Amino acid sequence: MTQKGGRIIVFEGVYPPSEDSYLLLDSLSLEEGDRVLDVGCGSGVISVEALEHTSGAVSLDISIDATRNTRENILRNRLEEGSNVVQADLLTALAPDTKFSVVVFNPPYLPVDEHSTTMDQALVGGEKGNEVILRFLEQLQGHLEDEGRVYIVMSSLSDPDAVSNYMESLGMSVLIAATKPQFFEKLVVLMGTLRHKETVL
């Protein structure tokens, strides 16, 4: 399967770029000096975009097939410089002092239901649908620069308000960067900006 005019190929078994991917992509504001972390990189569509516009990107996915797919698309687009692709469960592979100015997460965000598919690892985020997102946010602490931005796409079925409230409890200002109605749900991109911590003398 080939996406974006032949620039992105999708391996069998890897979540293909879909409406959530492109909504997230369209929400991003990237600058040349940004250092980007792409969590749940899948086929690498966001990593490729990040490497085209910034100084570097680290791409993480729990799926070995996804990391191979991302690496292949980075190579196809001749964007190896500044790239690093790692198989990992969320942020567990990062050194404690590694920080990013932009973090992008396309998580599994649907609640568990009676239907099971081969893509459940990429789609189902737990009983409520937001458990993987909350675990990611807990691990994100210490990896986001002051004034750094995190973008998360999720479903209206998975209680975006609860996620937004948790982000605020971690010191972020949160806004809805984009929405897109679907048949039974609405896709939402939350953008959190880590507030600068004032130094008290």
Poorly predicted sequence stretches spanning 5 or more consecutive residues: 1-5
Q: What's the pLDDT, averaged over the residues?
A: 87
Structural class, please?
alpha/beta
Give the overall shape, derived from the CA principal axes: globular
Task: Tell me the number of strands.
Answer: 11
Distance N to C terminus: 58 Å
Strand order within the widest beta sheet: 5-4-3-6-9-11-10
CATH class placement: Alpha Beta
Question: Could you explain the architecture of this structure?
Answer:
The structure is a single chain. This protein has helices spanning 19-27, 45-53, 64-76, 120-123, 131-140, 160-169, and strands spanning 2-3, 8-9, 35-39, 56-61, 83-87, 100-105, 110-111, 124-126, 144-155, 172-181, 186-194. The protein is built from six helices and eleven strands. Helices cover 27% and strands 31% of the residues. It has a seven-stranded mixed beta sheet, sandwiched between helices. The longest helix has 13 residues, at 64-76. The protein has a single domain (18-24, 36-194), classed as Vaccinia Virus protein VP39 (Rossmann fold). Mean pLDDT is 87; it is low at 1-5. With 201 residues, it is α/β, with parallel strands linked by helices. It is globular, with a radius of gyration of 16 Å.
